[in-house]
Each structure stands twice: as structure tokens, then as C-alpha cells.
Predict the structure.
Amino acid sequence: MKISDIGEFGLIERLKDILKSSIIGDDTAPVIVEGKALLLTCDILVQDRHFKLNYPPSAIGWKAISVNVSDVVANGGTPLYSLVSLTLPDMEVGFVEGLYHGIKKACEFYGCEVVGGNVSKGEKLSIDVFMLGKAERFVGRSGAKRGDGIFVSGTLGDSRAGLELLLMEKGHYEDFELKLIEKHIRPTARIDLPKHISKYANASMDISDGLASDAWKLARASKVKLSLFSEKIPVSKELAVFCKKHGKNPLEYALSGGEDYELLFTHKPEKLNPFLSMVQIGIVEEGEVVCLDNVLLEPSGFDHFRML
Amino acid sequence: MKISDIGEFGLIERLKDILKSSIIGDDTAPVIVEGKALLLTCDILVQDRHFKLNYPPSAIGWKAISVNVSDVVANGGTPLYSLVSLTLPDMEVGFVEGLYHGIKKACEFYGCEVVGGNVSKGEKLSIDVFMLGKAERFVGRSGAKRGDGIFVSGTLGDSRAGLELLLMEKGHYEDFELKLIEKHIRPTARIDLPKHISKYANASMDISDGLASDAWKLARASKVKLSLFSEKIPVSKELAVFCKKHGKNPLEYALSGGEDYELLFTHKPEKLNPFLSMVQIGIVEEGEVVCLDNVLLEPSGFDHFRML
């Protein structure tokens, strides 16, 4: 039996069974060390899967840190320290330095610090980042309660549109197109939200595989029904223009785009803070499914091993 | 300028300059979180560089954990929690499960726990492990004092002999050969030593690149001269037999073998504990070099990018 027979998530389930850990399953692992709640996470960017070598190296470094910060803030935490494990071919030193300039910039922006790492030779470039954070209160995926409002931050679907634009390799890009590309190659983690999440949210995760797929993960972990409303799902002006131009449906991008690094969380509807980037897109009900406009939503996410 | 022009260590120096961190440079990064001293480290095993796919998968998993525990104990710490980041091709699920059985066994042995990780698709298998430990007192490379004795644990050079035996692909191996192979594919981190190191050592590191190379790193970090005596360097009976059979010099293996994961540390000579696996191999003097039997020792270590 090959990994492609059971998929990435099937494999992870089997590996969790071996480890018998009760902790695994959220964006970060919450551990208590000497009475303090710490969050551990790691996320990797692999050449030709998550980026191409013609991307600006500083953007790759920025994104490598951002995707990890996104996991930490999704659980209501603050990033503290990071290690960077590079696997790289014999490439230009200037490229690796550019990568590190992006890493350094991101750390300054997010208020964390790279304190070590590792360099190893390999055939393709990969940047594996490990991050340690702390939280007043850890918020995972499994606590959503009936009656909670379902919220997302920012707008969804931009990153996939940006990726598609990049792959078109056009000689000239319009402004709205550059904005979408920027969302793909240089995403920003929602460091404006962890305090709100840590204080009010019953469940929270980041949207890295697409809303449809990630909503299912939250519904299953919390054993609840997520009832979403399509007209509430936030879409940017740029994505709307892009979709109009190319005859596409923005909702499709928002549901299955992936790599937006926005947050999906639930809490009492009245805790919505209009000064924060958040909108209510649904309500938590009894059940264990995800519905969109009262119709069952297929979990159309991304599986690294299934979509080969 | 390519990485091979400046080598792995030259690259690391440039990246450290960009980050401007005062912490980077030891086996682990010591950080203080809410008043507690924590150690962070990561180390990767890459297919065809650190192991071959015909090794027992559980041994690869065991080694991936062991090399990280080795970094933690080298700095006087105890391993606590770990994340495992796998990059893997579409391979047999049974192989990956075997790998995780080895990881689980190692964690049980060392008293730590895997609390999360990441799975990503790539062309070759790599296992990147991140580890969080704690220490009563962090001991790095830079504190060696004149008059200290220089100590190593265990025996040196076995791992390289084991690797050479493996590469011979013999149909039958003798018992002493199997012991050397075992030292290479299933090294054990020195969890018997961190308490002693944390209590007495002025400087400490693990020997992963070979004694000659690693002794230079300690000498430079501490700005001292390490004066080593060849007849004191511990060599196993198995390595002696191997070298006699193949017309090799055991000292050569002990000095530049690498991957032994024994510890190199310094403290007052009278703190030697005869109940622990440690022998004095030299003394710390004024200067910033490494000498063997009063002759300058070449740092004949391993550089991933130079030895292509």
C-alpha cells in the first residue's frame, strides 16, 4: 500500500495511532513546561511545491516564517523563538542570503527571533521552520459550541488567484493582479487577532487548505455542524475583478483556494469586534457536517499525495 | 559565488551575520521563557546523505530522535517535546510506519514525546526533528577554562567503520562488524551525562563531525588551546579489530570519523566521575588551537558542501 492510496491525512491518522499522543491534531501542539503553556509548531516550504526558484528569495523567507506564525496566532498565541532548517543544493550564496533577509524582516514584523537552525545538502531547496510560542489560553479546533457564530478574518481565495496569475507568466501585470500575487507569495499572518481569540474563541484554526476542507476539520474535531452562508463569505475586490475577467466564480476560490492564512474561529455572536478584521459567515449547530446555504458542502481541500 | 566556494560553515557565518543573533552557535539555542531556561534544537536526516532506504526504517527513526537528544544532553539538558517534519515521496506506508515505530521507541527510551509535526511531499525522504528541552544550567562551547581537563564519553570512530562495513555490502558480517554497524545506524545519545555536565562542565558539545573538527570549534568558541594526547583517545575493541583486519589506523577513525554522538566537555580534572563513561584526553591551555601530542592538529572534519 502506497501513501497515495490513503492520502496525506490517512497517513497522518496512522502515524498518530503509533505515537498515541493526545496532543496531536491542532495547528500547534500545546505543552506545559514548568507550569507555563507553550505552543510548538513546524511548517515547511518545498521548492516547486510551495514556491518556485524564480520567486524573490526574501518573499520565500517571509512566507516560511509567516505560515508558522499563522499556526501560533490561530491557537491564540504569540510567536517567540524559531529555528530554521535549510536543505539546499549548491546554489548562489546571494539567494540564500536574500532568503534570510526575508526571514529577518518577518521576525522583526512579528516580534519573534530566529535562534538557531541547521543547514544540509539536498537536491531541492526546502525551508523547514520550527516555532515556539506562548499563550494565555490555548484555543484548538475541538471546542466549538452550538450557538456560536462562525467567523473568518480578511478575505478568502486571493492566494490561489495570485498563484494562477503567476503561472500565466505574463509580461505585464495590472495593479489588481499584482495585489493578488503579493497575497500568494508574501502572505501576512493575523497577528492582530490572537488576543481576541485567546479571550473569546471556543475553537480556532488557520485556513491553509481552503475553507471547505478546513471547516470540515473543525466540524469533525468539535463534533458540530457548521452552517455557512455563501453571501457572507468575504471576497476581495481584486478577486472579484479577476473572476469577472476570467469567467470564474469567486466563491469557488474562497472555498477551495488554500494558502490564505486567514483564521477560522467560533465564539458567541455578540463577541464580534467591529474594529477587528472579522466577519460572521455562519452558525454552529448540532451535527457533524459542514453545510453551505443548507446544502452539504464537499470537503474539496488539498491533499499533497492525492492530487499527483 | 556558490555555497561550495565558501563551504557549509562559511555559509552559516554569513547567515548568522544577517540574523545578528547572539545565541546561535551551540548544539542547542538556550532561551528564557517566563523565567525558565529552555533549549531548542533541530537536526535533519536526509536520504542518501545520512541514510539509505535499505536501512531498517525503525533504525532511521531511532537515529533521527537520537541526534537531537544528543544536542540537548551535550548542553546539559533533558529532552522534553519534539516535532517531526517528514518530507517523503509516494512510498510504502509500511516503511513510514516502521520509521515512526523507531521514533516512538527512541522517545520512550529518552523520556520525551512527539507532540506534532508535518508531512510534505518531496522527491527524497528526509526526517527533520525539532526538539525542546530544559536545563538547570546551560553549558555551551565557549566556557572552557585554562587548567580544565578535556573529556570524551564512550569510544570514537565506530560509526565511520560501521558505515564503511555497510557500504561493503557483504553477504555475511561477523559479530564485531555487526556491533560497529549498529553504532552507525542506531546511535544512542548520552542521556547518562547531562546531570554531570550541567553540574561541573565549563564547556560541552557533541561529537558529530569528528573529534578533530569539533575540538577546533570548541577551541575557537572558548578561545583556548586544546592539548590532546593520542594514547588517551578511547577506541573500542571492535574498531581495533576492524582496523587490524583492513590495515587502517584506529586513531584516524577516532579523529575524523563523525556521527559518533559522544560528548566532548571540559571541567576541573578532579571532577572526573569513574562511574560514568568518560575519560580525560587532554588539558585546556592558553592559545586558540588544537594540538595532538604537541603537534598542530588539522581540522579534518566533514563539510556537506565542500566534500562533493
